Amino acid sequence: MASVSYFFIAVVFIFGCCSNAQLSPKFYASTCPNLETIVRRAMTESVIKELRIGASILRLFFHDCFVNGCDASILLDDTPTFTGEKNAFPNQNSARGFEVIDTIKTHILALAARDGVVLLGGPYWTVPLGRRDARTASQSDANTQIPAPFSDIATLTANFASKGLDAEDMTVLVGAHTLGYAQCANFRSHIYNDTNIDPIFANFRKIGCPASGGDSKLAPFDATPVTFDNDYYKSLVGRRGLLHSDQEFFNNGPQDSLVTTYSRDNAAWRSDFAESMVKMGNISPLTGTQGEIRGNCRFRN
Ligand code: HEM
Ligand SMILES: *[C@@H]1O[C@H](CO)[C@@H](O)[C@H](O)[C@H]1NC(C)=O
Hints:
The protein is mainly α. 46% of the residues lie in helices and 2% in strands. It has 14 helices and 2 strands, in the order H-H-H-H-H-H-H-H-E-H-H-E-H-H-H-H. The longest helix is centred in the C-terminal third of the chain and has 16 residues, at 266-281. Residues 52, 55-56, 58-59, 62, 94, 96, 147-149, 156, 173-174, 176-177, 179-183, 186, 243, 245 line the site of protoporphyrin IX containing FE (HEM). One of its GO terms (molecular function) is lactoperoxidase activity. Belongs to the peroxidase family. Classical plant (class III) peroxidase subfamily. It holds the Pfam family peroxidase.
């Protein structure tokens, strides 16, 4: 009898312990049973219009989560009396996909990001739901807490660790760069000045990214920018990483062996990616009565 009640207490303790205990895949099961269908339909329409949008929404979710948790703070517009995160250095003229989120609703960034990945061939995962919306945002935290493309592996690792994501999570998640594009200003110094780069690749990228000017010209991260595959990791092994930060993951350093593994084992990476996305989505959510549920995702109520 005693052991039974100890077991019961242990169960309550384990399930009652965590700050994200209230996120649940069934959060909207009775209040909005069609939520997943609604989001999937909106994402499907958007991705058909522009394949890249799946990448852009995935990145929005990442940039939201890394600034004081996954609380939709990135969606808030600047107003004369409020400074949000949209004009922080990593987001300005770079973060995109806000119009798609307008058409759905704010607290489903996590679902929209998952659907974008799925629609471009990526793995499915069950999304814990119930994140409420922040009433605050921080441009300065967005400037300092979103990883920079000029960082080295030690800085990146510390940055992810500060969000509760270990080095394996980081190396798995950066594989998101199998989708999408970067602007010349973010990879210019890598292709012109870095030594850990395939010279043929560097010369090829210089054609689309002059030594000066053309800051916003785009290049894909890997050879298949609208297909979710492990080509990104093959590029790193071939020293064809686009950003300085990308190549840091294969630079005679601590992440080389995991990058090699993923370059050879697409299935392993896909299942690890799904797992780490759930972990990223659990960074300091607002739950219960915290924050609010915005009527318009661009503004506080
Ligand atoms: C290791 C740290 C990371 C750094 C330094 C980094 C940096 C960047 C930069 C500079 C761009 C190009 C932005 C532009 O030129 O406009 C970019 C694009 C992108 N990032 Fe990352 N990133 C990192 C990790 C991640 C993670 C963890 C995810 C998601 C899980 C992600 C998803 C994306 C996607 C999908 C794009 C393409 C967006 C588009 O085409 O619209 N990144 N990243
Ligand atoms: C490459 O490095 C040189 C010397 O530090 C610097 O003058 C130049 O601006 C750099 N070029 C690019 C494209 O970053």
